[in-house]
Amino acid sequence: MRTEGRHIIMDASGCNPETLNNLEVLKQILVDAAERANATVLNVAFHHFTPQGVSGVVVISESHLSIHTWPEYGYAALDFYTCGDADPKLACEYVAEKLGATSVQTTEIVRGEENNGKYLHRLLTTKEREDEQKVSVLS
User: Is residue 10 scored above 90 in pLDDT?
Assistant: First the structure.
């Protein structure tokens, strides 16, 4: 079935608080993640909060990557939404590594499945995710 995109929601725990509070480092991490995912960066907007925390978005031609950080908790909430040939999983893996996350939880959503003229989303099942991982290992 044709879909218009894949959306991965990621909660990263145990991250380096200094990294989570550094706007320039986070901006570079997300831009690099977009490029690793085979996406084309169009625009970048980040904001540092007082006394701490950063929110930012990297707009890509295939959609977006976003981050919101809580350095005081070592926590980051991220979205990776892509369409086309961009692979959001590659971006997730890269960002988790660069943030120094000790624990990561992801949820993958298939977006834009056409069904009788309506476009819907659905959670990717565990089996579908495992099957995709097997295929990528064999490739």
Answer: yes
Look at residue 116 and tell me if it is in a domain: no
Q: What is the pLDDT of residues 38-85, one digit of tens each?
A: 999 999 999 999 999 999 999 999 999 999 999 999 999 999 999 988
Other Cβ atoms within 10 Å of 102 Cβ, number: 12
Q: In the annotation, is 121 catalytic?
A: no
* Assigned domain for 112 exists: no
- Is position 135 within any domain? no
Q: Has 47 been annotated as catalytic? A: no
Mean pLDDT of 91-104: 97
Q: Is the peptide bond before 71 cis (omega within 30 degrees of 0)?
A: no
Confidence at residue 91, expressed as pLDDT on a 0 to 100 scale: 97
User: Domain limits at 18?
Assistant: 5-107
Among 83, 103, 136, 139, the active-site one is: 83
Is residue 15 flagged as an active site residue?
no
- Give the number of other CB atoms < 10 A from CB of residue 2: 6
Q: What's the CATH number where 99 sits? A: 3.60.90.10
- Taking the alpha carbons at both ends of the chain, their separation in whole angstroms is 21
Annotated catalytic residue within 7, 63, 64, 92: 63
Q: How many domains does the chain have?
A: 1
